[in-house]
């Protein structure tokens, strides 16, 4: 079935902003979700991610939230590049342009490296959430699909459709990450809501038996915290994180700043796989030693 964006976002298509006049060339479609589509675009030699929204009001709310967050002195500074309208089949479609970050999903990263990397990734993700919370917002729809991991566990959030001002109702969610789904709290934009989703995200990533798909089918009255704590007991890394995860699931952290302090205390001394970290530096040092040795021989020959 042909969708409204097939032609507008085909590779090579040109998108021109109605008001700002910036021109973008589509390289490829990155994804399509419930509230919009995202494409990789190029303006000159620079590459960006462009998101077009289905509903103008919801999309403008997302832009306003992202603008407020990106104006702060944090890692989101200047994240929002442009916002404008485009014409598709005679209809005005709102879009915004943001930085494009190369990376992989959390699951892919952990599969290629090791579960020990969850300590580094968790720290970086909590920092991102803390920055959003300090700006007066809650991310809302935190899940594996809405983040990417790059380099040495660097984390970036890539879909801001669920971002909501603190105190408002959560406007976008994914069931198994939602505390309401687990009868563990209300669907209100609070820092503790994101921290609950953070705990689920880690457990889902560490769960080698892939049980979360089955949880969707369970009746509400049969969803219990014990189902989640059983995953902690069975996985060595999750077991080490259990004190933090239990507090996050029970809503015992008032703020993400409080949570990140607790997280850092818990993982102090934990290390990612040494072979993964040290190997590149061993190669560099080995190459450098050969170069120095060769230079010394040349000088004194």
Shape, please? globular
Task: Output the number of helix runs.
Answer: 9
CATH architecture identity of the largest domain: Orthogonal Bundle
Give the total of domains: 3
Strand runs, count:
10
CATH domain class of the largest domain: Mainly Alpha
> Main sheet: which strands, in order across?
1-2-3-4-6-5
User: Could you estimate the helical fraction of the residues in percent?
Assistant: 40-55%
SSE string = EEEEHEEHHEEEEHHHHHH
The CATH topology of the largest domain turns out to be Transferase(Phosphotransferase), domain 1
Strand and helix layout:
Elements: E1 14-16, E2 23-32, E3 36-43, E4 46-53, H1 56-70, E5 80-88, E6 91-99, H2 106-112, H3 118-134, E7 137-138, E8 147-150, E9 154-157, E10 164-165, H4 191-206, H5 212-215, H6 225-234, H7 236-249, H8 256-267, H9 274-300
Helix pairs in contact: 3-4, 3-8, 4-7, 6-7, 7-8
Binding site for ATP: 51
GO molecular function: protein serine/threonine kinase activity
Keywords: ATP-binding, Kinase, Membrane, Nucleotide-binding, Transferase, Transmembrane, Transmembrane helix
How does this structure look, described?
This protein is of the alpha+beta class and 301 residues long. The protein folds into three domains: 14-99, Phosphorylase Kinase, domain 1; 106-270, Transferase(Phosphotransferase) domain 1 (Transferase(Phosphotransferase), domain 1); 274-301. It is built from nine helices and ten strands. It has helices at residues 56-70, 106-112, 118-134, 191-206, 212-215, 225-234, 236-249, 256-267, 274-300, and strands at residues 14-16, 23-32, 36-43, 46-53, 80-88, 91-99, 137-138, 147-150, 154-157, 164-165. It has a six-stranded antiparallel sheet, covered by helices on one side. It has a two-stranded antiparallel sheet with strand order 7-10. A hairpin with a 2-residue loop joins strand 5 (80-88) and strand 6. Helix 4 packs antiparallel against helix 7 (236-249). The chain is globular, with a radius of gyration of 22 Å. The chain crosses the membrane at residues 280-300. It holds the Pfam family Pkinase. One of its GO terms (molecular function) is protein serine/threonine kinase activity. Its EC number is 2.7.11.1.
């Amino acid at each position: 079935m042909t969708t409204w964006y097939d032609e507008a976002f085909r590779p090579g298509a040109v998108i021109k902003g109605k008001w700002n006049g910036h021109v973008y060339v589509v390289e490829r479609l990155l994804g399509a979700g419930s509230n919009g589509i995202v494409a990789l675009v190029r303006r000159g030699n620079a590459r960006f991610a462009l998101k077009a929204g289905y509903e103008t009001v919801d999309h403008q709310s997302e832009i306003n939230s992202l603008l407020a967050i990106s104006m702060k002195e944090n890692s989101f500074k200047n994240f929002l590049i442009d916002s404008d309208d485009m014409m598709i089949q005679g209809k005005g479609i709102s879009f915004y342009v943001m930085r494009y970050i190369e990376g992989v999903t959390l699951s892919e990263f952990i599969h290629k490296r090791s579960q020990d990397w969850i300590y580094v990734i968790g720290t970086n993700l909590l920092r991102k959430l803390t920055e959003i919370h300090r700006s007066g917002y809650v991310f809302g729809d935190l899940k594996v699909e809405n983040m990417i991991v790059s380099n040495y566990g660097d984390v970036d959030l890539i879909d801001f459709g669920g971002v909501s001002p603190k105190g408002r109702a959560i406007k976008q969610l994914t069931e198994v990450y939602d505390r309401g789904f687990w009868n563990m709290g209300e669907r209100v934009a609070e820092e503790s809501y994101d921290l609950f989703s953070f705990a689920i995200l880690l457990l889902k990533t560490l769960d080698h038996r892939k049980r979360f798909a089955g949880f969707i089918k369970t009746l509400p009255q049969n969803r219990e915290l014990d189902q989640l704590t059983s995953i902690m007991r069975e996985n060595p890394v999750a077991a080490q994180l259990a004190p933090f995860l239990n507090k996050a699931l029970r809503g015992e952290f008032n703020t993400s700043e409080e949570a990140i302090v607790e997280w850092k205390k818990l993982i102090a001394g934990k290390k990612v796989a040494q072979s993964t970290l040290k190997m590149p530096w061993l190669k560099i040092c080995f190459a450098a030693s050969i170069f120095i040795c060769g230079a010394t021989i040349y000088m004194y020959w």
